[in-house]
Amino acid sequence: MNYAVSWSGGKDGCLACFRAMRSGYTISHLVNFISKEHGKVSFHRIEPELIRLQAEAIGIPLLQKETTWEGYEQEFKEAVRSLIPNDVKGMIFGDIYIQEHRDWVERVCGELGIEAVEPLWGSDPEKILTDFIDAGFEAIVVTAKPDLFGSEWIGHTVDREFLRYLRERKIDICGENGEYHTFVTYGPLFKKRIRIYKSSAIMRDNCWFLDTAEYSF
């Protein structure tokens, strides 16, 4: 049986995929959504091309689909439904503790007749982040709330220095409520490292974003 992964490009979905594969799940597709409004990855606001580089580096086919805020659920269903003929029996998600998120994915997947799998669910957030780092994954911060982070953290590596800052400021360790988002550049799933050569922190819609100008393997 094949499983797809709900893929934003960030650490939680990546670690969920990694744990699922180590548990014997066969991953056939990464599924990623682009906001039609601003032409970037939904929520993380990174360039769609960066997700395509991840899929190439990992070697798993990518399904990318544009969505709107109002039509997100229907468009999500259409994308996932298109994979069912490829023997996709379920979908992997990176949720940790927000019950509303789990309820949504279980309902939507149930309506599609597939299984929702949550490898990180109920795990201690600090252990998730340390497991991610210790496994050899590399990621950078790509969005952050300005009341919690200064611009110097945008583009910063997700490492123990970052973890210490989160602890000291009592910020949700995994950013489960959108405190920050990340982009994975390398790790055990990757055959190539993604390098970002030119970037800058910009403020938009009262949020810090990483504006990436030059990147490649």
Describe the overall structure:
The chain is α/β, with parallel strands linked by helices. It folds into two domains: 2-117, 3-Layer(aba) Sandwich (Rossmann fold); 125-216, putative n-type atp pyrophosphatase, domain 2 (Alpha-Beta Complex), CATH 3.90.1490.10. It has six helices and nine strands. A five-stranded parallel β-sheet has the order 3-2-1-4-5, sandwiched between helices. It starts with a strand and ends with a strand.
Topology:
Elements: E1 2-6, H1 11-22, E2 26-35, H2 48-58, E3 62-67, H3 72-81, E4 88-92, H4 99-112, E5 115-117, H5 125-134, E6 138-144, H6 160-169, E7 180-186, E8 195-204, E9 207-216
Parallel strand pairs: 1-2, 1-4, 2-3, 4-5
Antiparallel strand pairs: 6-7, 6-9, 8-9
Summarize it.
By secondary structure, the protein is an alpha/beta fold. The protein has 6 helices and 9 strands; from the N terminus they run βαβαβαβαβαβαβββ. It folds into 2 domains: 116 residues, Rossmann fold (3-Layer(aba) Sandwich); 92 residues, Alpha-Beta Complex (putative n-type atp pyrophosphatase, domain 2), CATH 3.90.1490.
Key descriptive features of the protein:
putative n-type atp pyrophosphatase, domain 2, alpha/beta, four-stranded antiparallel sheet, 2 domains, five-stranded parallel sheet, 217 residues, Rossmann fold, 6 helices
